[in-house]
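Standup notes
- HV: blocked on the assembly model, inputs below
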Amino acid sequence: NAGVTQTPKFRILKIGQSMTLQCAQDMNHNYMYWYRQDPGMGLKLIYYSVGAGITDKGEVPNGYNVSRSTTEDFPLRLELAAPSQTSVYFCASSYTDWNTEAFFGQGTRLTVV
Amino acid sequence: GESVGLHLPTLSVQEGDNSIINCAYSNSASDYFIWYKQESGKGPQFIIDIRSNMDKRQGQRVTVLLNKTVKHLSLQIAATQPGDSAVYFCAENLLGSNYKLTFGKGTLLTVNP
C-alpha cells in the first residue's frame, strides 16, 4: 500500500519556467490537499479538492493551479516560477474532511533560482 | 497573524523522561485540533486528535490535553525515546472552515540518549 506518492522529490527551476508536481494516492480518498512549507514555518494550504472534478482555493493559491480528473491524482501546476515559490510542497489526502486522519506524501523540495 | 502558536520553539529532553509540548490558539470557535509529527525529510504524520467537546485524549504513549478556558493545547509524550525526535505541529480546524486547517510553526523535540 503506497499511500500518498509525490514526484519529483527535488527540483530546481529557473525563474519563469513552469512545472507540474505530481501527487497520487491509492487509498480511494475523496479529499486531497496541497500544502507548502517554508523553512521554520507550519504548512499553508494552497488548493484542495473534495472529489474528482471539484477543486477550490486554499490560503495561498496565487501562482498555482490544480486539476482533479480522477480520484487518485491531484497535480499542482506552477506556470511562471518565482523565487517566492521556493518551498517544500506536500500533498495530503483523507477519506472525508479534516476531522479525520490525513495522510501526507514525502514532499517535493522546489528551488526557484 | 496565525491563530495557532507554540510557546517553545525547541525542547530538549533526556531519553526516558516525559515531554510536554504546548500550543496556544486564539479562536474560541475552533472545534478540532490535531498533533502532527514531522521527521527530517518526511511529511507530517498524524499523532493524535481531539475535539472541542473533550478535555483529554490518550493514545499510545501520548496524551493530548485541551483547556478551552485559556485556549491551550498540549501534547504529552511518556518515556520519550530517541525515535521521538522530530518537529511537532499542532493544527487547528476552524468551525465552518473544514478545509483550512491552520498549522502552528512547530516545536523541535530533541531526545538525548
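- HV (later): unblocked. Residues 43 and 59 of chain B are 21 Å apart (CA to CA). Chain B touches chain A at residues 2, 4, 32, 34, 41-46, 49, 51, 89, 91, 93, 98-106 (CB under 8 Å).
- Next: hand off to the docking folks.
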